[in-house]
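#lab-general

N.A. 3:47 PM
ok so I finally got the sequence cleaned up, no stray characters, all 390 residues accounted for. can someone with queue access submit it? mine expired

B.Y. 3:52 PM
send it over

N.A. 3:53 PM
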Amino acid sequence: MRFRHADGSVVHLAYCTNVHPAEDLDGVLGQLRRFAGPIRERLGADRLGLGLWLSRPVCDALIEGPGHVARLREALREEGLEVVTFNGFPYQGFHGDPAGASKLRVYHPDWTTPDRLRYTLDLARVLAGLLPGDVAAGSISTLPLAWRDPWTPERAETAAAALDELAAGLAQVAADTGRLIRVGFEPEPGCVVETTAQAAEHLGRADHDHLGVCLDACHLAVQFEDPREALRRLAGAGLPVVKLQASCALRVDDPADPAARAALAEFDEPRFLHQTRERGRPGGTDDLGEALDGGLPAAAPWAVHFHVPLHARPAPPLDSTQDVLDATLRELLGGPAALTRHVEVETYTWQALPADRRPRTDEELAGGIALELAWIRDRLLDLGLKEEAT
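B.Y. 4:20 PM
back already:
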C-alpha cells in the first residue's frame, strides 16, 4: 500500500514475508498465492507491498537465471503486489527445526565474511529488477555487523572494509540500473550494534548515500530507548532511517509476579532468540528462559524480544510495546517531513506464539497479518497521510 505524506513523498507500507518459510523459488511464488494475494483482498487494497525475504539459494536462482526475475515480477503483478524492500538479515534456514540448531545461526554469516557482502549485493541487483517502474529507490535491511562475541579490532576492521565495498557495489548497481538501493543496518539486542548510540558510533562514518539504519520498533523498545531521542541521535550522526520495521515487543510491568512469570514462560520457545532487558539495568539476558531462571532481578519492568502481533495486545498481566511503535511512527511520519519512506510489518513469530494463540490455517494467518496491516494503515491515516489508489 502507498500513502502520500504532506511533504509530497510516497510512503510504502509492506509486510515481511520472513513469516513464511521458503527455501526455493517455487516456495516464494507459492507464498504470493497462498498468503499475499488473499491478504490484499482482505484489506480491499488495489496494491499490497511485500518486504520479500529471499534465502541465499533463492537469490542464487534469481541471479543465475534472469528469466526467473521476470517470472517473479509477473507473479507479483498477477496478485496485485509490489516490492520496494527486502529483508536481508536471515541468510537461509530462518525458521529451521524448532528443536534444532543454535538460535545464533541467524547472525551468520556476518559482516566479517565475504559471503554476507556477496549475498547483500546480489539482493540489491535482484531488487533493482523488481522495483515498480515509478519507484526509483529500494531498501534492504541487514544484521548489525555481527553477534557481539567475539568482536575484536581485527574483525571490526574487516567489517569496515566490507561496508566500503558494499557502498561501492551499491553505487555500481545504481550506475548499471538507474535504481538506488540503500542498505539499513538493524540494531538488535545482543549484537555489536544493539542501540542507536552504537549505530552512530559504528556507522557514523559510513557512506550515508547508500548505507543507513533499519529501525526496528521492537528492538528499540527492548533496549528501553525513547524514539524521539533515538532519532535525534541518528540525525546527529547523519544516519538516514532507510526503513522502519513496525513491530511490538512483549512487556511485563511486574516480572516478579508469579502469574506474570507463568504467562511469560509460555513464550519461552526453542526456535528464536528472545533477548530480555530490565528497565534501568545495563545488560540483560540473551534469552527469556535465562531471565526467568534468575538472570535478571525482576525489580523493574521487562521487555522481551518476541515480536507479538501489532493489533492484539496480550492479556494482562502481560502487555506489548504498542505505545513505542505508535511513538516511533509519530516521530518518523507525523512531522512536516517524512523521515523514512519504507514501513514493513515484521511479525515473523506467528507460529511461535503459545499454542492457543497460533493461527491454525492459512486463512487464519492471512487474517492476522491483514489485521496488523489495517492497524498500521489506520495509524498512518491518523497522522495525516493519504492512502493512494493504483
